[in-house]
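Morning. Coffee machine broken again, so started the prediction first thing and wrote up yesterday's gels while waiting. Chain of 186 residues, entered below exactly as on the submission form.
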Amino acid sequence: MRNRNSTECCKRPMRPKKIFFHKTYSEETTLDLGRALGAALTPGVTVLLSGDLGTGKTTLVRGIGDALGVTRVRSPSFTLVNEYHTGDVPVVHADLYRLEPNGAEDLGLEEYHGSPCVLLVEWPERWADPPEHDVLKVFIESRSENERLFEISSLGGAADLVLQNLQEAVKDGKTDSGVGLQPALD
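Came back before lunch.
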């Protein structure tokens, strides 16, 4: 079950309009989910990724980057923010793990939100005032060594459309690896 103390990304409640659940069973199927999400993303949408260490946040980001033309996503654990301008849409990837709670204020992440880029933020609970619109919240729970449960919720019109497009891609089984995307049933 979700540990809300360590993975909740905001102090005040944000009410998601839509919630989607999805399971992956390997690194490759997590990459596939990321590719499907990346294909659905539009500039101006922010993705907040929460979950314990080792649940696959950076793996999902690698899949998103792959779909957006970023050939080599590096974890920004030490640099905090990486910008990629290799695809059609600029991608900004922030990893706030090494920051203290509320330690992200000086990074200027709010300037990226709503701009013509895709902003991906790992450990958003360290961001004191994350955006409340055009946001996808992704919570990842490790169910076993390889199985992950993704809870993806949308906040705002653009994010709602992204989530709808992701759901359609999963329903249609669109995937790069041939493994197939399947929604969670339990």
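The CA atoms of residues 64 and 105 lie 25 Å apart. Going to sketch it on the whiteboard this afternoon.
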